[in-house]
Amino acid sequence: TGAGTYTVTVTENGCSSTSAPVIYTNINDDMTTAGISVYPNPVNDFIAVEFNAAAGEKTVVSVYNTIGELVLTRQIKNQKTEIGFDLPAGIYSVEIRTNDALYVTKVIKL
After folding, report:
1. Other Cβ atoms closer than 10 A to 94
2. In the chain, N or C terminus with fewer CB closer than 10 Å?
3. Global model pTM greater than 0.85
């Protein structure tokens, strides 16, 4: 799956429900446009999540391993937050859920 905006629609017994849009990017273009930075990449001991403006009240950073297990989650409120990344080496999906959207990018843990 490439970069883009995705939704999921579930239909059961004639009723449908569609998820909020998820903005997925491999190269952080959409996150950069939204004023969000995740660095460093590759990751050693921590990742920093930084916003051009203060993070919204309900901003949550979640990290998933390659099999989709949630391995880390933090609610953040500051313009810049450093999150300890004490995880095994590998590739991780970093999901940033703001009040308005969901952004997903990948990081490599050395």
Report:
1. 22
2. N
3. no
Pairing state between β 90-97 and 102-109: antiparallel
Q: What is the DSSP letter of 26?
A: S
Rounded Cα–Cα distance for residues 81 and 41 (Å): 15
Task: Write out the two tokens for 70.
Answer: 């949630």
The SS3 call for residue 2 is coil
| CA 23 – CA 65 distance, rounded (Å) | 19
Mean pLDDT, consecutive 10-residue segments, the chain of 110 residues?
74 86 61 87 95 80 93 92 95 90 90
**Residue 42 has which token pair?**
């590759």
Tally of residues, the chain: 110
59's tokens = 């901003």
Instruction: Give the other-Cβ count within 10 Å of 25's Cβ.
Output: 19
Distance CA 94, CA 72 (A): 9
